[in-house]
Amino acid sequence: MRTRLIVSAVAAFGLLAGSALAQSSTVTGAAGGAATGAVVGGPVGAAVGGVAGAIAGTAIDPPPQEVITYVQEQPMPPSEAVVQDQIVVGRTLPETVVITPVPDNPTYGYAVVNHERVIVQPKTRKVVRIVE
Predict the structure, then answer these.
(1) Which position has the higher pLDDT, 49 or 14?
(2) Reading across the β-sheet that carries 116-121, which strands appear in turn?
(3) What is the pLDDT of residues 26-79, one digit of tens each?
(4) Distant-in-sequence, close-in-space partners of 99: CB < 8 Å, separation ≥ 6
(5) What CA–CA distance (Å, rounded) separates 116 from 14?
(6) How many Cβ atoms are within 10 Å of 98's Cβ, its own excluded?
(7) Model confidence, pTM
(8) Residue 109 has pLDDT above 90, yes or no
(9) HEC states along 80-92?
(10) 126, 92 contact by CB (below 8 A)
């Protein structure tokens, strides 16, 4: 019973945090954290992982609109990277993925992975946005 109460409280907190902050990285971080926590620690792990993921997701600064536009306008490469893991904001890309720097803003780079354009921080290889 106590576990259900904790899980319900954390789920409600996660929904409030997602709507209050209105950032996709928060929601994605919470969902990714909850999924990982559930695998490792069951329902309690899901609760803890969801909160931790939401906090981590809000720490990622979104790229400016100029960077997003630049990435959207680039032609698709002749070959693209394919990775087994799902591409999620906040996760790092494997070393096998080639990251192309954004010329006017070296803080960001981009790659095409699993048929999706992603904007990353080149130094950490962390995904900061999935471009639609």
Answers:
(1) 49
(2) 100-101, 109-113, 116-121, 126-131
(3) 555 555 556 565 666 677 666 656 666 656 555 678 899 999 999 999 998 888
(4) 93, 109, 110, 111, 120, 122, 125
(5) 27
(6) 14
(7) 0.56
(8) yes
(9) CECCCCCCCCCCE
(10) yes
